[in-house]
Amino acid sequence: MTSYDTVARAATAEVEDRGSRFVCTIRRVGDEDEARALVAVLRREHPGARHHCSAFVIGPRGEVQRSSDDGEPAGTAGAPMLEVLRGAGVSDVAAVVTRWFGGTLLGAGGLVRAYGDAVRAALAEAGTLRRSLLTELALDLDHADAGRVEGELRSRGVTVLEVAYDARVRLLLAAPASEVERVTDLVAAATGGAAAPAPVGERWIDAPG
């Protein structure tokens, strides 16, 4: 697994059914603690709501998947919410649907539909972006050459993550494993063979834009 999709931005969306309001909050999260913290925040913000049902998927392969009906009939809230997230193919995402009861019972089918529709609507607002696992490459340069080399690499589509200034300048580059050789060749061309990038690790990076 070298790439996966997540949400591009935080979003909220609301659906209504027979007086009941279902407001879905979508957030990008890095672990279970962040997902559970989102539920806690929404409980504090909306103490008058009857339910705060949740679902989240975390990890490049969606290794962690959890859902909660929060008092709704079993299987009518958290499970359909989780199914929508799975169907969208996104990870590192938490969805919380806050429900205000409108006085009319919706039945199991109505609840499944409302909770699922709320998550679908919020996902549409959030959009998606791709995350890729890239190799980090450290490139040490003299101060006199650093600006020119950085500019040449950027102009050829090389990702520059960081620039650190010390006795020398260190550029931290990133590239897919399949592109490391190309980046190495570009560095050699830009420096006349005087410098070469060294792999120093891997990092998940959001796609530009």
From TrEMBL:
Residues 140-193 form the UPF0029 domain. Residues 18-123 form the Impact N-terminal domain. It comes from Nocardioides exalbidus. GO terms for cellular component: cytoplasm. GO terms for biological process: regulation of translational initiation. Belongs to the IMPACT family. InterPro entries: EFG_III/V (IPR035647), Impact (IPR023582), Impact_N (IPR001498), Impact_N_sf (IPR036956), Impact_YigZ-like (IPR015796), Ribosomal_Su5_D2-typ_SF (IPR020568), UPF0029_Impact_C (IPR015269), UPF0029_Impact_CS (IPR020569). This is Uncharacterized protein, YigZ family. Pfam families: DUF1949, Impact_N.
